[in-house]
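Predict the assembly for these two chains.
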Amino acid sequence: MKPAFSILAILTAVLLSYGLYQALVVAPTDQLQGDVYRIIYYHVPSAWTAFLLFSINFVASIAYLVSRNPKADVLALVTAEVGVVYCTIVLVTGPLWARPVWGIWWTWDVRLTSTLVLWLIYVSYLFLRRFSSGGQTPVLAAALAIFGALDVPLVYFSIWFFRTQHPQPVVGGGGSIDPRMLHVWLLNWAAFLCFAGLVCWSRYRVEILQRELEEAQALQALLERNPQ
Amino acid sequence: MNYLYTAYSATWIIHLVYVGYLVRRYMRLRKEIGELGK
């Protein structure tokens, strides 16, 4: 194991633990929502992490289409997969926050629906990667990823341009947030980013190993067929 | 408070399930590479 990986793992563990403590114990209670608002410290950082990963997937997909560099293809696959994990967290924690605050689990407004569509697009991407075996699979997947990434700004800006059940942004959208809450929020985002980086690193290594194994197996099969 | 703890637990469970999947896949790959080398 590389020293940088170990250092990142320790940093991630410290940040996640400290972030959890800050979110549950130190951050002030919201006057309107009570303690349930603390879901924000996992819900929003997960969304931002997913957006960042899908954006990297977008850039890597374009890089692959331009250069046909297999490393760009692996990076696109890895960021899509980990992005789906974080998007899943958003879609699970969102309704758990909405139920006590809005009185409903789900509503088909633009923000929620576009987030679900985003998740479905990248799940489709992963299914394509998993079950298609043709040589054009990385190209088709890259094309799908580019269209999928167009949904990211729609999700983000939907609450600016449409009337939605989802609250307006309190960071970067003209709203206000208690600095103590913002501190905990950013701390947990840093923790999630480190964790995502660690997981992407591991997943990248697994994918490289997988491809090396497939090449070795193909070579072995060829040698068995033509022994001389 | 139940919703809060459920959301936090769900987040951790999703993280851990994915990490578990990665570890299992890595172990299987190492095993297959080892068998190929024999």
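The radius of gyration of chain B is 17 Å. Chain B is about 95% helix and 0% strand.
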